[in-house]
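Q: Hi! First time doing this. I have a protein sequence and I read that you can turn it into a structure. Is that right? Here it is:
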Amino acid sequence: MGPETNFWNCHEVTQKCRVEGTVLGYRPNFGINAFLTVVFGLCMLSHIVTGVWKKTWAYSIFLALGSGLEFVGYLARLKLSDNPWDSTAFQAQICTIILGPTVICISLYLTLKHITVAVDPSVSRIRPALYPLIFVPADVSCLILQAIGGGLAVGARWTNTTMLRHGNRLILAGISIQCVVLGLFGALCLEYFYRARRRVRAGESSPVTYAVWDDRNFRLFCYALLGAYIGIFVRCIYRVVEMAGGWGNSIMRDEPSFVILEGFMVLLPVLLLTLFPAGFFFLGMANRRNNDLGKEDIIELPTPLVSMRATEQVRFHFAS
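A: Yes, that's right. Below is the predicted 3D structure, encoded as structure tokens:
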């Protein structure tokens, strides 16, 4: 997009203001963006309903918010498919689609605390209650950097190249830090899994640990978390490569790579966590009596597990 064609003097596609002159360089596919808009919208509603029903408040709020940002972003891209020079729609999709996955990450970070408490807190490297206190602020800092960067990019109006460049750098910094935070989170999850599995196989765990470890629903939820983590991580790597080239680079102007590595890689975690909601598949986060950093929750395991591993009510203690 050169000085002759920008959002100041181009408001619709004309002979002078061609589609190729936009930052994206293409007219977003209507069908794909309509599909993503509908699915993200339905997932947002699902997270709200299950969150209220099963009282997985913080977890579901961030999932719903992240899905809502994606919904707005792809709704804006629908408008761009009609008019690629719609500056409001372009700015909206920049901010929302960049920020959505970062918000979704907060829900992932909240699960590690509850998984370690439910399975075996004694093999965790750090106190379970510290996991959200470490990773959520780190994720919020990434969110703030990306939000400021997106704001600068929008404010630059594509004519102030200095402000535009600074906005791009802040977005890139935010996503890069997010990759580091995600990598550390993944390493801690993997290390905890191996330590817990080794103790289970050695026969050194409690009946409660065996009951949770053998629970099919819990395993399905963990697989869903793994798929969600992979999707978000792949998306972040793609965004780092994309933003490193600056606005309007060849990667940014390639719609298939955006759809696969951004759209579907974010849709994957949202869909998985919608199909396998924590409130139904992980009782350690359902029907909570206290808030997310509460001292104690009492959770009933399914009858088959109780009869197989323990005969009394299971009480989980959450360190504050």
